[in-house]
Amino acid sequence: MNQPTEPTIAIDVYRTRRERVLAALRVAGGGVAIVPTAPEALRNRDADYPYRHDSYFYYLTGFAEPEALLVLDASAAPGAPASILFCREKNVERETWEGFRFGPEGAREAFGFDAAFPFGELDAQVPRILADKPALHYALGRSARLDEQVRGWLDAVRAKGRGGVAA
Question: Three-state SS for 92?
Fold first, then answer.
């Protein structure tokens, strides 16, 4: 799988699209939107189908790698990151087999995100982002695995309710 080393459209186009979504969320009262990309599809025991990203995810990010998730935080404090990407870490050895990877730092710079984290940090970072937010915007039913993960993040926030954190 060969990935381009640069986005095909100028970074400002994707950044503007994310800002429009964030503005609409702010008008609606704020909150957090979670936009995942499509999962990889296994063809047989040792080969995947050619990867195709989710169209909504790509429209907002320009990012075409698998195992990625966009978080838009319309309730972020001034100066805090509002567009956050979670993606696979840079791994030169795996790139030999799977193709080029931007990694969190490369993706943040190349695509203009406010912040980027490794995909493995979802369970640590997302509950922190969701805490004390007025709404969660997420399309339930597209992925049972991700639906369960989102419920887990909400449960982690609810568990902090006695400490004054709202879910």
Answer: helix
